[in-house]
Amino acid sequence: MSEYSKTLRLMERGREFLGSDYAILCGAMSWVSERNLVSAISNAGGFGVIACGAMTPELLDTEIAETKKLTDKPFGVNLITMHPDLFDLIAVCEKHAVGHVVLAGGIPPKGSVEAIKGGNNPAKVIVFAPTLALAKKLLRSGGDALVIEGMEAGGHIGPVSTSVLAQEFLPELSEDHLVFVAGGIGRGQAIAGYLEMGAVGVQLGTRFACAKESIAHENFKKAFFRANARDAIASVQVDPRLPVIPVRALKNKGTEEFTAKQREVAGSLDREEIAMNEAQLQIEHYWAGALRRAVIDGDVENGSLMAGQSVGMLKEEEPVADIIQKLMAQSEEALTRR
Hints:
Helices cover 45% and strands 13% of the residues.
């Protein structure tokens, strides 16, 4: 590890916080970030994160237990704030003494941060925030670290690019808080740049989606290898009343079907057949099912191929350990040149 001395020095606070060799988090990708990929990333010195997504507490319980059989290194769990069983999922994390819980998908509901940080096995809380004001509020309210994620990322995205978020957030927060940068990062040179700006580490999803240890279907991986940055497009919001967070994915029939799904749910709202919370959950369940069709079943026409714009940098299946070493070597080379 000493060969990456410059990068490791800039990552020091992030590494200490995560308990990993490298401050490289794996983004939580539903169906992809499961026991095999998570354990491989942690074993290779990064920090794997289980994507709970729409899992029941029973399924999460099994997933954590199985991940622990494959690694003795630290890993985290990503929980969606709108999940109806959020507090039961938090209890599962506490039962297994999970050290880090990532809260994503919205503002953490009242009592959730306290539930994670309290109890017999208190965990560290990692939060997401799309604005500087909200970031400060979440950090004051118990968030131990922050991830800022730009619109270049895959899956659910915000409206602002990673480079702009980094310029806005890091000068304000990096001295007193732990900030990880995510969105569109595919090479170590970008990691070096964000570390120099004050980030304590980075989060990458797309770069790991097609790793050798990823259980994603061969068709899913081939679609990624064929794609370029322009193929990863953001979904369109059909009805302004339906607060649908845009999703970045490779364009296919599934992208068009999502537009139809929004119209269907909006119609149910018009007819007062469902409440707004139920409408949002239907949208989330749609994505969970569409993503499963692509990742697990290999239906790359009708399923959802969630991918960030860094997808164009993926050309072949590589072991996780090789990916991480490449990223670190590229970062170190960039810092040495400077």
